[in-house]
Every structure is written in structure tokens, then in C-alpha cells.
């Protein structure tokens, strides 16, 4: 029986992982209790969070940053809805479930920025037309959206307060927009300095944590740091939630009490529980009879790990790689594909890759499908519900397919290099580090065109840390590194395909 194959340690991990998953889901779902959550009518995908008492409430429009979605902002939505506001979070063009690609000129304020402002206004208009809206409105945005909401607040006199998280905007003046709260993570050093600079436009002697002016009169301004967090962690920090709620209460003459939505730890526990569950699950297939792959010599390993890392950015540098309706994903797909092709070519040339028989090939494909399903179906479902959009609109299927054409050969070569997790740890660290360094070299060679790759690098790093570990468990238990590479390649292609913003130049 499969369960009998688990060691006592794996049984313990399985039990703890299931407890962590159940407890996290229970706690995360509890934040929704007593709220009415549903769609906002209109062409832009948007979700409304409001109290169930039916009393009309002030509206807060909530917008995400680059490569984000409305799920990423849910701590704000839940905190404000539980405080009596009607929170409306939406997906910008090109993001999340929004099927309309971003367009315009990204480098000019008169370009894409104006289109995103127009979409923000359409969502605002639709929200204020609902019977649960009492007429007053505030606006909140993170990162890229911080500039959008500030410019929209300057253009729309209905907006009584603005919350800019991880803000950078050249549009702020000493007295506009009205009632501006700026929140930065303490580990966002540049944005923390920017928050202080903007605060001192109103009062050169002001300091972080000090309120300038009077929110009740529309003249309020405040900048605060959320401790021990960075660009994403600031979206989950209790300090961010409390400051946002208190600022809006001051602007609207309201009072709120009680806990805020403190979800970051529970989300982390849920995702760690799902990843940890892969260890005992990998053992349920039984001990593999597949032959252990031969160990690459040190010299050959270094050649396979380092030659593509240097060669690929140099080979792609002279060419225009824009062929997909999405920012820099086309380059990344080509980088993956060429990187994997070079590495696999070297492995085949040296006779390190052998063609499997029919039965073994079927076992490899079956295991690859299970690995991909665990990543996309199980981990992905948790991501889509609690973190960020993970299930694609039809327009993204072509992008996922293009990413798979590159990610699959890359992850296959990676898994063969590290022998499905059986190679020494330093080899795995060097192989993945060399690839990240290769992307960094590509950005350095063409910073203007490939700048947005820097935003995707953390996604790739987290993938290596989490699912490189999962791949090691499956590879050691199954003895089939090719299956691990194929499955993780499909999962990586999916994860990147739903992350990149869709973009159509005009």
C-alpha cells in the first residue's frame, strides 16, 4: 500500500502540512465573514467588498501595481470593508482577468498613464452609480498605480483622499492632491526617501509619522514606514492597514476599531504547507527502479552551467525579439529556449542523455503531468484565491504556449544537470545562480528594452527556491530527472504566462 512507504518523518510532515493548510484556509476565509463580496458592473473586472448591513458607504477605489491584480490588494479590501467602507478593487488593462491589453507609450505621461487614468475613472463612475455608494470617494494605489491614483486625484475633484503605497510620482505639489497618505516599506530605501521628500514639500521640517495639515479640511498629508517589509510585504503589513484605515476615517469624519486583515503570515503558512506536502506525496509512488543518471564530471558541469549563461545574452543582444503582445516575455521565452538548447546540446554531445524506451517514456510523461498538476492545480489554486491572478484569460494561452516552448527545454536541462536533485547542493545553487546572472547580463546589455525583466526576476527566484526543492524531492524519489524537468517547465511557463502584463503598442 502506498501509505506504508512513508517514513515516520514523512508522516509527521504530511500531518503538519495538512494542519497548516486547513488552519490557514480557515483563517483566511474568516476575514470574509459578514461581508458582501461580488462583481462591479462594467467592462473592467472589479470586485466589491462591503458590509452586509446595506447602509450606503463611502467608496474606496483600490488599484494594484505592475504585474499585479486585485487579489494582491485584498488585505486593503477586507480591512476597509470591515471598517464600513465599500472597497472596489479592479484589474488594470493587461493584468489579471482584464482581457484588454495595455497600450500607449509607456515612456510618456501622455501615453499609457492617460489610458490607465481613464480606466480608473470608469471604475469610479461605475462604483458611485451603485445604491450602496453614499457619494464620497477615496482612491488607493500601489507602486505603478501610486502615480496613476495621484494624477487621477488631481484630475477628479470628487476624490477626497488618496493613499499611495510604495509611491513614486512627480505630480505631487505642496498642496495637491487632497489628504495624501504615503506608506513605504522600511526596506524600500529609495521609496522611503521619496516619501519623506514629498512630505517636506508641504513642511520642510516635517518627519516620518507626522501629520501635516488637517484631513477634515482636505489639507492633510502624512508619510509613514511599515517596519520590516519590502515592496510586496508592505501590502500585508498591519501598519499599512491601520494607517490606511485611520487616514480615511480622519478624512471622512468616521471612527473604526477592531483588528485589521493581517493575512501575510497565513498566506505564507498556506503556501509552505502545500510545498511541504510534496515531500511525502513524492514518496507514495514507491522507490524507482529507474537507473540513476550518471554524474557529470566537474569540468563538464561547469561548462554546461556557465557557457549558456554568458553566450545566450550575447547571442540575442543584436536582435529585435519582440514578437508577442506582452512586455519582455518574448525575450524571456527566447532566452529560456536558447539556454536550454545549448545546455541540452552539450549533454547530448557528451552522451549524458539517453533515449528512454517506450514504457519508460510513458512513466516520465505521467510523472511530469503529476508534477505540473500539483504546481498549476494545487499551488495555483491557492495563489489565485489569496495572492494574485493565476488562472488565465483565453488571450494568455498563446503566451503560456510560447513560454512553454522555452521553459520546458530550460528546466529539462536544469534537472538533468542536477540529476533530479541528487547532485551536490552547490551544483544546484550554481546552475540556478548562473541563469539569474544571465538574465542580469541581458538587462545590462539593453537596459531600456529589458528593464521590466528586473520585476520578473523575483518570480523566477521564488520558483527556484520553492519548486526547485519540490523537484529535488520528486527526482530523488523517482529517479527520473527528465520527468521533473518537463513538469516544472510547464508549471514555470504557466506562472510566467499569467504574470506578465499583456501589451499591445498603438
Automatic annotation (TrEMBL):
<feature type="transmembrane region" description="Helical">
    <location>
        <begin position="425"/>
        <end position="445"/>
    </location>
</feature>
<protein>
    <submittedName>
        <fullName>Serine aminopeptidase S33 family</fullName>
    </submittedName>
</protein>
<feature type="transmembrane region" description="Helical">
    <location>
        <begin position="301"/>
        <end position="319"/>
    </location>
</feature>
<keyword id="KW-0472">Membrane</keyword>
<keyword id="KW-0378">Hydrolase</keyword>
<dbReference type="InterPro" id="IPR029058">
    <property type="entry name" value="AB_hydrolase_fold"/>
</dbReference>
<feature type="domain" description="Serine aminopeptidase S33">
    <location>
        <begin position="56"/>
        <end position="167"/>
    </location>
</feature>
<dbReference type="Pfam" id="PF12146">
    <property type="entry name" value="Hydrolase_4"/>
</dbReference>
<feature type="transmembrane region" description="Helical">
    <location>
        <begin position="264"/>
        <end position="281"/>
    </location>
</feature>
<feature type="transmembrane region" description="Helical">
    <location>
        <begin position="395"/>
        <end position="413"/>
    </location>
</feature>
<keyword id="KW-0812">Transmembrane</keyword>
<dbReference type="InterPro" id="IPR050261">
    <property type="entry name" value="FrsA_esterase"/>
</dbReference>
<keyword id="KW-1133">Transmembrane helix</keyword>
<feature type="transmembrane region" description="Helical">
    <location>
        <begin position="331"/>
        <end position="350"/>
    </location>
</feature>
<feature type="transmembrane region" description="Helical">
    <location>
        <begin position="451"/>
        <end position="475"/>
    </location>
</feature>
<keyword id="KW-0645">Protease</keyword>
<keyword id="KW-0031">Aminopeptidase</keyword>
<dbReference type="GO" id="GO:0004177">
    <property type="term" value="F:aminopeptidase activity"/>
</dbReference>
<feature type="transmembrane region" description="Helical">
    <location>
        <begin position="362"/>
        <end position="383"/>
    </location>
</feature>
<feature type="transmembrane region" description="Helical">
    <location>
        <begin position="482"/>
        <end position="503"/>
    </location>
</feature>
<dbReference type="InterPro" id="IPR022742">
    <property type="entry name" value="Hydrolase_4"/>
</dbReference>
Amino acid at each position: 500500500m502506498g501509505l506504508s512507504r512513508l517514513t515516520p518523518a514523512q508522516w509527521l510532515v504530511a500531518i503538519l502540512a495538512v494542519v497548516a493548510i486547513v488552519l490557514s484556509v480557515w483563517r483566511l476565509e474568516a476575514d470574509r465573514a459578514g461581508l458582501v463580496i461580488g462583481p462591479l458592473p462594467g467592462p473592467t473586472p472589479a470586485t466589491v467588498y462591503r458590509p452586509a448591513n446595506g447602509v450606503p458607504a463611502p467608496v474606496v477605489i483600490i488599484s494594484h501595481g505592475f504585474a499585479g491584480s486585485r487579489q494582491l490588494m485584498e488585505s486593503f479590501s477586507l480591512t476597509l470593508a470591515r471598517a464600513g467602507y465599500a472597497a472596489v478593487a479592479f484589474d488594470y488593462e493587461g493584468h489579471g482577468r482584464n482581457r484588454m491589453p495595455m497600450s500607449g507609450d509607456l515612456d510618456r505621461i501622455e501615453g499609457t498613464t492617460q489610458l490607465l487614468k481613464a480606466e480608473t475613472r470608469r471604475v469610479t463612475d461605475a462604483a458611485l452609480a451603485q445604491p450602496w455608494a453614499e457619494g464620497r470617494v477615496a482612491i488607493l494605489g500601489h507602486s505603478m498605480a501610486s502615480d496613476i491614483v495621484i494624477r487621477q486625484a488631481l484630475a477628479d475633484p470628487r476624490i477626497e483622499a488618496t493613499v499611495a503605497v510604495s509611491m513614486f510620482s512627480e505630480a505631487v505639489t505642496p498642496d495637491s492632491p487632497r489628504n495624501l497618505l504615503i506608506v513605504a516599506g522600511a526596506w524600500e530605501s529609495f521609496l522611503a526617501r521619496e516619501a519623506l521628500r514629498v512630505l517636506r514639500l508641504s513642511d520642510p521640517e516635517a518627519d516620518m509619522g507626522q501629520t501635516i495639515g488637517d484631513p477634515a479640511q482636505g489639507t492633510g498629508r502624512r508619510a509613514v514606514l511599515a517596519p520590516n517589509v519590502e515592496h510586496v510585504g508592505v501590502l500585508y503589513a498591519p501598519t499599512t492597514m491601520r494607517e490606511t484605515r485611520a487616514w480615511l476615517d480622519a478624512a471622512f469624519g468616521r471612527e473604526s476599531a477592531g483588528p485589521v486583515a493581517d493575512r501575510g503570515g497565513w498566506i505564507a503558512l498556506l503556501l509552505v504547507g502545500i510545498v511541504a506536502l510534496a515531500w511525502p506525496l513524492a514518496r507514495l509512488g514507491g522507490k524507482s527502479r529507474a537507473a540513476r543518471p550518471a554524474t557529470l564530471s566537474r569540468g563538464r558541469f561547469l561548462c554546461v552551467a556557465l557557457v549558456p549563461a554568458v553566450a545566450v545574452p550575447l547571442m540575442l543582444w543584436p536582435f529585435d525579439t519582440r514578437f508577442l503582445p506582452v512586455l519582455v516575455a518574448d525575450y524571456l521565452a527566447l532566452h529560456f529556449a536558447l539556454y536550454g538548447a545549448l545546455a541540452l546540446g552539450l549533454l547530448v554531445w557528451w552522451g549524458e542523455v539517453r533515449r528512454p524506451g517506450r514504457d519508460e517514456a510513458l512513466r516520465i510523461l505521467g510523472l511530469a503531468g503529476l508534477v505540473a498538476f500539483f504546481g498549476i492545480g494545487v499551488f495555483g489554486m491557492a495563489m489565485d484565491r489569496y495572492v494574485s491572478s493565476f488562472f488565465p484569460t483565453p488571450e494568455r494561452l498563446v503566451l503560456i504556449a510560447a513560454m512553454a516552448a522555452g521553459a520546458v527545454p530550460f528546466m529539462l536541462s536544469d534537472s538533468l544537470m542536477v540529476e533530479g536533485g541528487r547532485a551536490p547542493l552547490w551544483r544546484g545553487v550554481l546552475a540556478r545562480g548562473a541563469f539569474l546572472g544571465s538574465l542580469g547580463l541581458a538587462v545590462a546589455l539593453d537596459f531600456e528594452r529589458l528593464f521590466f525583466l528586473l520585476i520578473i526576476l523575483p518570480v523566477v527566484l521564488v520558483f527556484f527556491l520553492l519548486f526547485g526543492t519540490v523537484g529535488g524531492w520528486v527526482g530523488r524519489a523517482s529517479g527520473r530527472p527528465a520527468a521533473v524537468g518537463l513538469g516544472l517547465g510547464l508549471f514555470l511557463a504557466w506562472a510566467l504566462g499569467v504574470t506578465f502584463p499583456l501589451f499591445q503598442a498603438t
